[in-house]
Amino acid sequence: MTQHVDYLVLGLGGMGSSALYHLSKRGLNVLGIEQFGAAHDRGSSHGETRIIRKAYFEHPNYIPLLQRAYELWHDLEQTTGKTLFNQCGLMVAGPSDGAVIRGVHLAEELYGVEVESVSPADAVERFPGFRIPDGFEVTHEPEAGFLHVEQCVQTHLECAQAQGATVYLNEQTLGVKVSERSVEVKTDRQKITASSLIVTTGAWSSGCLSELQLPLEVVRKVLFWNPVREPVYNLDAGRGSFFFDMPEGEFYGLPSLEGASVKLAEHTGGETVSDPADVDRSLYENDVHRVSRFVEAVMPALDPQPMRHTVCMYTGTPDGHFIVDQHPANQRVVYGAGFSGHGFKFASVMGEILADLATTGRTALPIEFLSAQRFNQ
């Protein structure tokens, strides 16, 4: 038996749960399918928290999207009464001539993002527990903070269902067939045809859209929670998130939420994953080494050995930017992929953009720089 729906969303992590929410908010007949459970820990949208910021050093073109993302996260909080975003601020440290610090100041210049320059002497007082390397410049972005990641996904799903969306969990997609006039999806339980399809399957995107030959690489990433030795990183003491552009890589972390540990990780690097369904989630000695060296050099009030960890995946593109586009064979098939480890903060606005593309074929938001066509030039 074949089921037909008007709008089908494959993959209900950060982006897919938001797309489902925005489609259902418009009163549309929409179905979402997720191969795991709700707000699961098998992909890229887990680990308790994610940093959100406006001074986007990756590229200033993201900033209009972030401005809308902030509005939508606020709207979701107002609608549900839940606290999803904590505006605790973000300290960024790195060489003045490095891409990170230069990118922060470019965001400030082009879009008026509020960025404070912090002198080395003031940094010692404002950010206790950190040893700023010699010659580093320090900035602080007061509008930055973090999102409660699993709660964001769960809230989008709950609201979508309350608005009439159907959700199938623990159902695996076996194949997607796209033609000029139709879309057919086969799962391990059924066959579904759809008038319009949104694909947000994260590390599984290349398999779902194999005919597009998207230039995606999946890497294994480890998140750590390290014990605190002194209460200098606590959120309740006014501490915020941090990002360091070190000579050996980029490292980030969040304030201690419970007073016992700090979550941190290396943003750069990562081991290539050949099969996202078969990722080793145990802890390697090499996983710990680089982050421990960072802790020893920069965070003396933190134990360099983690108390726990989790493993997620980055699905990256050659230039580190997202791919958001329509299928060349059928414009009613749209997809978001390659969020490259910095995408979750955009989930609220990406859901709106994908819903726009699926329903009208266009969006008012500036996403031209994210088109897949850039890889064919």
TrEMBL record:
InterPro entries: FAD-dep_OxRdtase, FAD/NAD-bd_sf, MTOX. Keywords: FAD, Flavoprotein, Oxidoreductase. It comes from the Bacteria. Pfam families: DAO. Its EC number is 1.5.3.1. It is an enzyme of class 1 (oxidoreductase). Residues 6-357 form the FAD dependent oxidoreductase domain. GO terms for molecular function: sarcosine oxidase activity. Its cofactor is FAD. The keyword Kinase does not apply. NCBIfam families: PRK11259.1. This is Monomeric sarcosine oxidase. It comes from Gimesia maris. The gene is soxA_1.
